[in-house]
Amino acid sequence: MVERNLVNVLLLGGGFMLIFTSFQTLGNIEQTIIDSIKKDLPSFTGDGYTSLAIIYAALSLSNWVTPSVLSAIGPRLAMVIGAITYCLFMASFFVPHVALLYGCSVVLGAGAALIWTGQGMYLSQCSSGDTISRNSGIFWAMLQMSMFFGNLLVFFTFQGKTHIDETTRSIVFAVLIAVGIVGLVFLTCLRRPSTSGDAPVELSHSVEPRQAFLNAIRLFQTPRMILLSITFVYTGLSLSFFSGVYGSSIGFTNAIGTSAKQYVGLNGVFIGVGEVLGGVAFGLLGTRTTTRWGRDPIMIAGGVLHMAAYFLIYLNLPNAAPFGNTDALSYIQPPSALVAMGCSFLLGLGDACFNTQCYSMLGGVFKSQPAEAFSIFKFTQSVAAAASFVYSSYCGLHVQLLILVVLGIVGTITFCVVEFAVKRERPTLERDYEK
Which family does it belong to (predicted)? Predict the structure, then answer.
């Protein structure tokens, strides 16, 4: 018989897979779509990078409130409310208006804080020290399957198009919203986590909202969390790069050919392949590798994969690619679609390394304060993502890559420092347990 908590993790992963099939696909093509809307509707002056920056800024601010909210309503209801805001944001694209776009971006940012902190808390409640790596890997692999379906839809519907017309846009939006609603239904089916038996876990709400907020502040000030926050910042920068900037840069590089817009969708598929392979590998092997070698080898592997991807992107795409259609060239002439898709795969696989190990660290080491720990994770990650989308409108591709390289190296080192400290504590804890 399948354990109840594993069923909960599968339902959780399925719900997030469907919701983010919608949102990640839309985020990947948002700047490209808005560029086409502006040509059809000159009065519309919205900007995709600005919208994404607003989302992550609102997410970062809301994360300080979410531990208090979760202490009052619990993680399951928080995730349902958050999922509704994703559907509302996607629906706003049927009525192109700047105020509506940016207003729904703010609402989505607040909802994203609820859904992600609720997810982290719920996943932690469904896991033990023995199953947290497995469950993190399973959830991450299922979540990243979202990169396949939506982006395959984009690949086929954008085929042969240099301009995304209103009919094509409407079809894509309608399908993505319908998929998001099904994901919302999945989240409403989540059950209370259970202990090793069938008895439900007592999910205490005894922590007052004000106390939950103060606990998050105190946890954020600990040396261990300060070091991890540097890693979290890097995950936010890389997230914004591969989810918004890189795909748009491929689509704007005219020298790739008439299929450049199609490759925006295919880029998301290859990122998804890397994400899913990483999630499955670390889900199946996570407990074994964490116990024997720790989390640091996987984290270092992720850093190496990302450095290789950034170097190849530097060689392949022109510096002006993030800003709009360009005829400029880089060192590989003409730019190679094959290299571009290979970099997408490396970005996805490396991101799986970083995120599965961050989830494992937070769910295992900070299990007594899951809401506070995951809210800090999403706060630092989303602040970095918001900052990245702001400077993406002004900084060329090469400067963006340099920032990613520096933060990627530093973030990998700081995570390993914390992991080494956890390893040193583990034998002591085991001896105390034996006594």
Answer: Belongs to the unc-93 family.
